[in-house]
Amino acid sequence: MTTRKTIANDPDRAPARSHLYAMGMSEEEMRRPVVGIASTWTGTMPCNLTHRELAAHVAEGVRAAGGMPMEFNTIAVSDNLTMHTPGMRTSLVSREVIADSIELMGRAHGFDALVAIVGCDKTVPAAIMALARLDVPSVILYSGSMMPGRWRGRDVTIQDMWEALGERAVGRMDQSELDDLAKHACPGAGTCAAQYTANTMGSVADFLGLAPFGVGDIPAVAPEKNAAAFQVGEIAMDALARDARPSRVLTEDALHNAIVSVAAMGGSTNAVLHLLAIAREAGLPLEIDRIGEVCREIPIITGLKPSGGDHTALDLWRAGGTSLVARRLLAAGLLRENVTLVDGRRLVDVAGAAHETPGQEVVASVERPFKRRGALAILRGTLAPDGCVLKLGGKSDFRHEGPARVFDSEDACYDAIQEGRIVAGDVIVVRYEGPAGGPGMREMLSITGPLVGRGLGSSVALVTDGRFSGVSHGLVIGHVTPEAYHGGPIALVRDGDTVVVDSAAGTIDLLVPEAELAERRAAWRRPERPVERGVLAKYVMTVGSASDGAITV
Ligand code: FES
Questions:
Q1: What is the pTM of this model?
Q2: Over residues 135-155, mean pLDDT
Q3: What is the CATH number of domain 32-147+188-353?
Q4: Ligand 1: residue whose CA is nearest its atom 3
Q5: Among candidates 414, 79, 472, 39, which has minimal Cα distance to 233?
Q6: Ligand 1 pocket, 80 CB below 6 A?
Q7: Which among 324, 404, 408, 479 is least surrounded, fewest beta carbons within 10 Å?
Q8: Which DSSP letter does residue 527 get?
Q9: Cα of 261 to ligand 1 centre, how many Å?
Q10: Is 0.90 exceeded by the ipTM?
């Protein structure tokens, strides 16, 4: 049997050993399995602020289990901090950059195993995508939610901040109240504090089997988090011993369970994009309509903001966490049992060991859910032949027919809303905000909050080839494909055209005669490329359809 050549035993790699000695490593340590610890720490956001500390505890766990940790970190972009600047176009792009960074480091250093510490929205799918590409034994550590803020006797989150902008616009709140709320909404480190995109994807990591159930639930600043991080280091070494690679953990059944978790927990529409991307990277079959089919059957069983109720992620942790959700879903036969998780447990083990706090009111049963309908639906029709995503948020089925109010950017639409030019019944169409056209699929954060704040959340439909923040709610339909930049029908809509959204039928149609549409199509010209240089230009040239996860290969 030939021994695998490593830095420790390959005579020709003496120069590499000299660099390891330079970092204080001993010969004995060089002979250990090397566990890469990818942290998505940046000092530019609260979401990932704890990652360096967590990485140190993961490293201790790796060392204690006989491994040699090597830490590195990536970039990350917070959607809240980059709003109202060109920065919002960078958010989805950052998913690709983070995935590529982790992949490159993995390929460069040939780590035997990996731990990825993730938090803010894009960092979770990005890490999973990279781990799927590298396919070495890997564990995800979700760094955890922020505590909710307290303001005027109630729990508040970043969602309240966005909606407060609309309330200020209609005079229900003044600037000093808005500024005071800003001081209280986000009390410390951690991800946005309810079932918005980051926590949705944190739960997805659990149900995909890549993150140990129970760890991600622990809030970012809870004292228990560091001990859990130490355990994750040990789990990584154990996963290495069992050869628990993503290709053996992240199976079709696990992917199905993750889709169910998004629906059952009232998760973010961004999960559609990310699940499609993860499936592509893992080589698993998944079409966008399949996500809609699964979600249609699953009620919302957690009472979490923004779709299930008013509870926060802290409440879910106290109630029993995602393990309790898994128990409920398994009991109802909604999950596929034939999965083995990265820590070696089976889903039934997790469900059996789940703790339920007596009297908790956050996790319901499938038989008596918070909302009978699921989180989202997939629509197709003449306005979106390749599909789009409706954020149902547990609402009953609805039909909305109204005149289109067309805007070629989120910013133009923002002005119209704040100036009171949008009225009940309208169908707002915001286009050229797709993956390539924006570029980067902005999240429409500046318009969904004010719409709700102005009381138009349930009387105005918003249709876009961009996407939505996890905090968004209302009659919102995003990810319209083909996108306007590629000449999809959304590019042909004109003010006053009738648009019909029918959630029960799963359709979204533009009621314009085909002959008229053909004329408009013949006259349509693709706009100039939105950017010519740098990372965004590369993204425009390589990004695919949102219905394929907007990946760049
Ligand atoms: Fe980072 Fe919400 S903006 S988790």
A1: 0.96
A2: 97
A3: 3.40.50.2300
A4: 78
A5: 39
A6: yes
A7: 408
A8: P
A9: 20
A10: yes
